[in-house]
């Protein structure tokens, strides 16, 4: 079952997405549904099914006509790094100016270490809803989207559902010095997620999700690459357990689980590009790209 959130008469409204039809739910946020299910000693899936069976939902909206919001108002988005072999190779490439040698880099070490790389990626105000502009930095010449599966968790670290996230990244800033990671990852509107959350209890196998990245420029598809979560080096719960350890985590937090898709090394995003990330079980996360103008 896929849950979305949209503006209905300017009010955030939760909805169930089936084919291209959306049935509104009596909640304004995903966590309200989760908490109501917990109070009623049931699960979100059963509660929504009950609302539908009781014919308490009669209105239907057309998905393509909605003003989408992120499917949960996530106070924070965290991200995992170097959880796929492909990401390890790409990080080594950008850090070595293409002159790869086989010595053990930080990226090689973190790929094999027990403790994963985790970092704060975004806050609610910096996170962009589906179909709205994602920014690229004014001071970077090498920027890419990172298509990732995101887990939606509660404050105890329980995985409630799965979504699609975009961990926009500056490869030249990170490649210059790994200590620049926060600047390579966080700026105004550098993260989006959505369009839906597929409930954990209704997703048969989160380790077999095909992710496809498409990038369009002047109407033409210029990048198309796919990967599968069966290549993930770690388990979702393992990443969550490190995130919640000795930490303060809020209900509705999203943890992105790393990328296995890296566009060709010569590629960089440009103003006017359109990014689409598809996971068939979840949907398509679409965002146009806008280049920030330096105020220096
Ligand atoms: O080490 C830098 C971040 C890597 C990352 O974001 C990823 O692997 O997805
Ligand atoms: Mg990433």
3D architecture notes:
The chain is of the alpha+beta class and 296 residues long. The chain folds into two domains: 2-69; 76-291, Fumarylacetoacetate hydrolase, domain 2, CATH 3.90.850. 20% of the residues lie in helices and 37% in strands. The chain contains seven helices and 19 strands. Strands 1, 2, 3, 4, 5, 6, 7, 8, 11, 12, 14 and 17 form a twelve-stranded mixed beta sheet that branches. A hairpin with a 2-residue loop joins strand 1 (2-8) and strand 2 (11-18). Helix 1 packs across helix 2. The mean pLDDT is 95. The structure holds 2,5-dioxopentanoic acid (DO4) and magnesium ion.
Structural class of the secondary elements? Answer: alpha+beta
CATH homology group of the largest domain? Fumarylacetoacetase-like, C-terminal domain
Q: Give the averaged pLDDT, no decimals.
A: 95
CATH architecture of the largest domain: Alpha-Beta Complex
Silhouette: globular
- Tell me about the biggest sheet? 12 strands, mixed
CATH fold-level name of the largest domain: Fumarylacetoacetate hydrolase, domain 2
The first-level CATH class name of the largest domain: Alpha Beta
Please state the CA-atom Rg, rounded to the nearest Å. Answer: 19 Å
First and last CA, distance? 47 Å
Q: What is the count of β-strands?
A: 19
Q: Percent of residues in beta strands?
A: 35-45%
């Amino acid at each position: 079952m896929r849950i979305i959130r949209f503006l209905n008469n300017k009010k955030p409204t939760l909805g169930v997405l089936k084919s291209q039809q959306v049935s509104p739910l009596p909640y304004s946020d995903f966590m309200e549904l989760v908490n109501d299910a917990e109070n009623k000693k049931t699960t979100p899936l059963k509660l929504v099914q009950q609302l539908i069976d009781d014919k308490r939902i009669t209105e239907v909206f057309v998905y393509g006509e909605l003003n989408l919001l992120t499917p949960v108002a996530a106070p924070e988005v965290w991200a995992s790094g170097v959880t796929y072999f492909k990401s390890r190779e790409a990080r080594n490439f950008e850090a070595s100016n293409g002159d790869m040698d086989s010595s053990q880099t930080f990226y090689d070490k973190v790929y094999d270490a027990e403790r994963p790389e985790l970092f704060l990626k975004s806050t609610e105000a910096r996170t962009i809803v589906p179909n709205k502009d994602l920014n690229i930095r004014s001071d970077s010449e090498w920027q890419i989207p990172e298509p990732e599966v995101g887990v939606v968790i509660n404050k105890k670290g329980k995985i409630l559902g799965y979504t699609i996230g975009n961990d926009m990244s500056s490869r030249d800033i990170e490649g210059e010095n790994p200590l620049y990671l926060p600047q390579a990852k966080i700026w105004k509107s550098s993260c989006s997620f959505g369009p839906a959350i597929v409930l954990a209890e209704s997703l048969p196998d989160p380790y077999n999700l095909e992710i496809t990245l498409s990038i369009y420029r002047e109407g033409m598809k210029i990048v198309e690459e796919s990967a599968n979560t069966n290549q993930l080096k770690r388990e979702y719960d393992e990443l969550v357990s490190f995130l919640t350890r000795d930490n303060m985590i809020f209900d509705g937090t999203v943890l992105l689980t790393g990328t296995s898709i890296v566009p060709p090394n010569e590629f960089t995003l440009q103003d006017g590009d359109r990014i689409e990330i598809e996971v068939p079980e979840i949907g398509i996360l679409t965002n146009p790209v806008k280049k920030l103008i330096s105020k220096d």
